[in-house]
Amino acid sequence: MTGRDSAARSAQEAVQWAVQLRSGTMSANERHALDRWLAASADNQAAWHKLADSLSALVAPAGVDHAAFRSALLVKEPSRRRFVLTGVSALAVASGGLWFWRQGAVDALPGAAPGVWMRTAIGERRTFEASGGSSLMLNARSAVQDIVSGDVHTYALDKGALYMDAPAQPSRVTPVSVRTRDGYLQTQSGAFGVTLVKQGTRVQVDRAYADILTLSGNRARLRAGERAVFDRNTIWRDAAHGPSFTSWTQGLYVASNTPLGDVVDALEPYLPGLLTITDEAAQHRVSGVFHLDRPEQTLQQIQDTLDVHVERFSRYMTVISA
Predict the structure, then answer these.
(1) Do residues 320 and 301 touch, judged by C-beta distance below 8 A?
(2) What is the pLDDT of residues 160-204, one digit of tens each?
(3) More confident residue, 315 or 41
(4) pTM for this one?
(5) 3-class secondary-structure state, position 207
(6) Are 235 and 228 in contact (CB under 8 A)?
(7) Where are the beta strands (DSSP E) in the chain?
(8) Are 161 and 138 in contact (CB under 8 A)?
């Protein structure tokens, strides 16, 4: 086996070990096997550290100690990871090296020019000007691209959540359009929130209307007070009751008999590093108002009101368990 082949095999095995370690199902014998694998060769050790460096570059907040962050990412702990290696990003091995494939990224629009990116950092909400006098607010850790084709602007949500507010404009010729990995939302005049979730795209209309068009061609119109989740093929209308999906625009998460896992998902963009929760703890039901801009206080609130434990393993790793 050549040196390149050995390094490629070690890189692939490092990914497999990392996925197993982060899954929370690793036995003591398997942990010892990982230690033996690390000690077996310099290629294994180099691949392991390269993987940790790649992960820290992907998710570490700007300005943090990447060495400490890398150690936190690969620390052994018996909880299910909800942030890296599943959902937002997946690891793969190609040409002997590591690369990242972002699941569900928005495809380029035919004939459209490369657009301007708008992004937010950890804990940052920001409002941008959109076309035709509209405004676009991004939730923390979100990204959207303004793709221009002729005079038409399409706002492609790549990560996180946005809130579009399109005031009535008698002179507006083309609708305001938001695109996700699942389809489009359009309105001539309206206000609506869009969030990328595991099931697809979640939308809530707060004023006037928004039209949904899935990539497979299914359509639905939502009016003020209505909400839905859709993927590339199907639109599921949600009952018009319960907490608002767009309360994040006010820095709040309102829960009403809501799984704790959903609260954690809403809080993740406001904390540096990784916030994880075990499956058992994620099923706890909770009601209340949680302040997203004060994540440490919110974590304490969760621990004080529920039968769960909130543990800090480092500055960049928080684990919630039952």
Answers:
(1) no
(2) 999 999 998 777 668 889 999 999 999 989 999 999 998 999 999
(3) 41
(4) 0.69
(5) strand
(6) yes
(7) 89-94, 97-102, 113-119, 126-129, 135-138, 143-149, 152-159, 161-166, 176-180, 183-187, 190-197, 200-214, 219-223, 227-230, 235-238, 252-259, 274-277, 285-291, 309-314, 317-321
(8) yes
